[in-house]
Backbone:
């Protein structure tokens, strides 16, 4: 892969790093394409059992590449407005990428090494577990700086993670949310010292890589359903999924490990 995104496999963990550090990793068309290529590799390589997403330099991701927008506005197809053009880009690139991250067959850890702004917030929050360096912060400049609305899934994820009042407040004021406060509010899993971020991200991803692939898929599915289910519906869904999983290989392995007083050795992706 080219320099905008690097791809490395460490054991069963794929490490994908945004690597346009000089510009704090904007979501340019080139970077988005390389992220899509990385997703394709992870989807097809069954030896990969977890993803660690992070970035190089002093920032995680500043969101949209506004310089790219300005250049594109000078060469739009006939009859196209800039808004229509960007809308198509969002549908084909950004929105598709968020959906792919949320639906990867492996768990995703995001290690936010510095500021996450604009679409970079949505990109980070698409992971299953998010940790951030103490110097990092989350910033939604859409309304106060650009007269736009949050995108890359941020408007869906934020109120579910921290509540409507805080989500709307962050969007309207554009105040920067420090990593330690983000952890206190429940936006992210943990805030760690800057020097410990990559080691902690690797540790978490390696731990998740050892889990049963079917269980990971079911956990994602059941928590997604809980967003709209009533209690009785959710109880019924829990029973259905537990019934299936108890008859599966992973539970049998876990039960044997329990009786033998050892750590279970779950199989990876089929």
Residues:
């Amino acid at each position: 892969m080219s320099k905008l995104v690097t791809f490395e496999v460490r054991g069963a963990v794929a490490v994908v790093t945004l690597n346009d550090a000089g510009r704090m990793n904007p979501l340019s068309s080139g970077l988005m394409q390389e992220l899509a290529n990385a997703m394709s590799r992870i989807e097809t390589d069954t030896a990969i059992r977890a993803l660690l997403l992070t970035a190089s330099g002093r920032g995680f991701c500043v969101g949209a590449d506004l310089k790219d927008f300005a250049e594109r506005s000078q060469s739009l197809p006939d009859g196209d407005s800039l808004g229509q053009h960007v809308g198509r880009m969002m549908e084909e690139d950004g929105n598709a990428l968020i959906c792919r991250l949320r639906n990867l067959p492996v768990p995703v850890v995001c290690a936010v090494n510095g500021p996450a702004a604009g679409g970079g917030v949505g990109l980070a929050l698409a992971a299953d577990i998010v940790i951030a360096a103490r110097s990092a912060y989350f910033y939604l400049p859409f309304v106060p700086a650009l007269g736009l609305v949050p995108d890359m899934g941020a408007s869906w994820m934020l109120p579910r993670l921290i509540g409507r009042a805080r989500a709307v407040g962050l969007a309207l004021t554009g105040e920067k949310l420090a990593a330690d406060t983000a952890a206190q509010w429940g936006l992210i899993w943990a805030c760690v010292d800057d020097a410990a971020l990559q080691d902690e991200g690797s540790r978490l991803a390696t731990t998740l890589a050892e889990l049963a692939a079917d269980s990971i898929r079911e956990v994602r599915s059941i928590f997604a359903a809980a967003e709209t289910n009533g209690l009785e519906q959710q109880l019924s869904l829990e029973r259905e999924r537990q019934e299936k999983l108890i008859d599966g290989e992973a539970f049998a392995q876990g039960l044997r490990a329990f009786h033998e007083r050892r750590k279970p050795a779950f199989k990876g992706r089929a």
The longest strand covers residues 5-10.
